[in-house]
Specification:
mainly alpha; Leucine-rich Repeat Variant; 13 helices; 215 residues
Length: 215
Amino acid sequence: MPKFFKAFQGGYGEGDQFLGVIVPDQRKIAKACYKEISLDEISDLLKNPFHEVRLTALMMLVYRFEKLKSEEEQKKIVDFYLDHLQFINNWDLVDSSCFQILGAFYHEKDKSLFSELAASGHLWRQRIAMISSYFWIKKGKFVDALALAEKLKNHQHDLIHKAVGWMLREIGKRDFDTEFDFLKKHYQSMPRTALRYAIEKFPEELRQDFLKGDI
């Protein structure tokens, strides 16, 4: 697991520790506990040095957020999440929580927060910005996701390249023309990883045309 999550010296997850608990078991724990556990206790879990403890805490937070009906109560979870960004420090922690909480809450609200996160220069905050757009994409709203993709497409880290390509691919699943038009404009300047993720589901002939620069 340290190898998989790049927890070795010089890796993006350097210093992280692992217990070896599998994700399905973490979900069982989260579902059993999320109704009773306090935010103070979740805060303590998010500060835990073990990766699985932090992931389980985020699962609890997502389950709690999804059950709330009041926007005021949802906002408390959002503020709590933003106050603990420093502990959401690997790709699975980001991907398992940000679009379900931040993406959902800001679905029909001003999205300047995500532009700020994208411009932060911080890897995990930038991935949070991009992956949060998954919620909007699933609702058929692509404008803000495309703006973030354009802003982050030339990022230096492959984890952002993958995030950008993934979100573009998700757009294409719902609206091929929108993804195609974006790629036609930007694909020659995009990192190869982002492009490969974005065109993964394209017909093979079209995929090859993009890879060869023949569009």
